[in-house]
Amino acid sequence: MTEFRIEGDDCPLADASRAVNGVVDASPPLMRNDGNVLLRFSSAPNDELTAVLDADERIRYLYQSESDGRYNYRCLSLHPCVVHELISSGFMVESLTYQNGNTILTGTVVGNEILRSVMETAGETVGVRLERVYALRAEEDDSIAQQWDLTPAQEASLRTAVEMGYFTVPREADAADVAQELGISKSAFIERLHRAQHALFTQMFRTGDGA
């Protein structure tokens, strides 16, 4: 697993998160043959974010819906972002978070040769900084298969909270500590954690056939 921070990203989602001082969680971008990019992302309800995106001439066909207290978006971007340079070199994106104009990019790299290629690409790309590299554990293969219906960002929040002792009694880390480790705001971490817990508990205690 590899995590990069892209500082000063000039893609539409980074610019929008900077303009509204907010957090945007995105799925891996999909590049079309014509060079345009399909984007899927979400945020806490924020009409200002919608207005900023709608006014961006690089964004087309912006669609917004609301579910589970989140604004969900889909659109076409005319601006290929830095992320695609890493993808082209072999980086497999798991999650993307845009916050205040910066991007936290988490994903997997298979093999030392691919890792070297990704690192070389990152080194040649202005504003891309390696945050951490760690081995993919067996249980993470299961999580990629989505045993539980969690987003990559929610899973990362839960896993990091567990590893740092957020759930121990007494706590070994507070919400601010975990948020700092994840590179997001405290409020964003708490929101992801609550959503992840709701999804987990709903599935764990789901009853069937009216039982």
Mean pLDDT: 81
Distance between the termini: 41 Å
Assign a percent range to the helix content.
25-40%
Cα radius of gyration in angstroms: 18 Å
Q: Strand portion, in percent?
A: 25-35%
Secondary structure class reads: alpha+beta
Mass-distribution shape: globular
Structural domain tally:
2
Instruction: Kindly state the number of beta strands.
Output: 9
Provide a quick synopsis of the model.
With about 210 residues, the chain is an alpha+beta fold.
Note down, in words, how this protein is organized.
This protein is α+β, with helices and mostly antiparallel strands. It folds into two domains: 2-133, no CATH class; 138-204, Arc Repressor Mutant, subunit A. Helix content is 39%, strand content 27%. It has eight helices and nine strands. Strands 1, 2, 3, 4, 5, 6, 7, 8 and 9 form a nine-stranded antiparallel sheet that branches. A hairpin with a 2-residue loop joins β7 (92-99) and β8.
